[in-house]
């Protein structure tokens, strides 16, 4: 009986950090058009990676890009907000996690356009793409580069 109690307690202790890690992630609020399938694919990617996502279908997502200070040159099909950072386009969940862990002084992350192979844009083709870290003044730098597979 003691061995069983020990195993149950040990397994519970092993699972608690995982549960708290997911619970500690902030909610991502997404602004997208109702008809955008790739935006829904990106939301599914975030949820699969442990994020809670609150989706708002809006008439013009670019209005939110402007409100959140995303440079128009970095525009894509949806804009999001997470813990004070703007997210534009198909930003991979791993980069959002890193952003939230390292907390750089920046306005947010962007994946301009809609590159094939980025989260939500999976398909037969996968092109190289960059995740960009952008500043309030519009300057940006490469945060992470992804190689295409085709």
Give a short synopsis of this structure.
With 150 residues, the protein is of the alpha/beta class. Helix content is 34%, strand content 24%.
Q: What layout of secondary structure does this protein have?
A:
Elements: H1 2-23, E1 28-32, H2 37-48, E2 53-57, H3 61-67, E3 79-82, E4 85-89, H4 93-102, E5 108-111, E6 129-134, E7 140-146
Parallel strand pairs: 1-2, 4-5
Antiparallel strand pairs: 1-3, 3-4, 5-6, 6-7
Largest sheet: 7 strands, mixed
Order of helices and strands: HEHEHEEHEEE
Distance between the termini: 56 Å
* Total count of helical runs of at least 4 residues: 4
Helical fraction equals 25-40%
What's the shape?
globular
| SSE-based structural type | alpha/beta
Give the C-alpha Rg: 18 Å
According to DSSP, the number of beta strands is: 7
Strand content: 15-25%
Provide the residue-averaged pLDDT: 87
Query: Are there runs of 5+ residues with pLDDT below 50, and where?
Result: 5-23
Q: Order of strands side by side in the largest beta sheet?
A: 2-1-3-4-5-6-7
Task: Provide structural commentary.
The termini are far apart. The protein has 4 helices and 7 strands. The chain is globular, with a radius of gyration of 18 Å. A 7-stranded mixed sheet has the order 2-1-3-4-5-6-7. It is α/β, with parallel strands linked by helices. The model is unreliable at 5-23 (pLDDT under 50).
């Amino acid at each position: 009986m003691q061995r069983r109690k020990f195993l149950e307690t040990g397994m519970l202790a092993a699972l608690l950090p995982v549960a708290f890690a997911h619970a500690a992630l902030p909610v991502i609020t997404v602004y997208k058009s109702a008809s955008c399938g790739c935006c829904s694919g990106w939301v599914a990617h975030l949820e699969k990676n442990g994020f809670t996502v609150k989706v708002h279908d809006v008439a013009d997502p670019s209005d939110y890009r402007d409100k959140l200070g995303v440079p128009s040159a970095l525009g894509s099909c949806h804009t999001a907000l997470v813990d004070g950072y703007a997210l534009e386009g198909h930003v991979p969940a791993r980069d959002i996690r890193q952003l939230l862990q390292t907390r750089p002084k920046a306005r947010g992350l962007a994946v301009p356009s809609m590159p094939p192979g980025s989260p939500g844009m999976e398909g037969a083709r996968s092109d190289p793409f960059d995740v960009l870290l952008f500043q309030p003044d519009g300057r940006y730098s490469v945060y992470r580069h992804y190689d295409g597979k085709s």
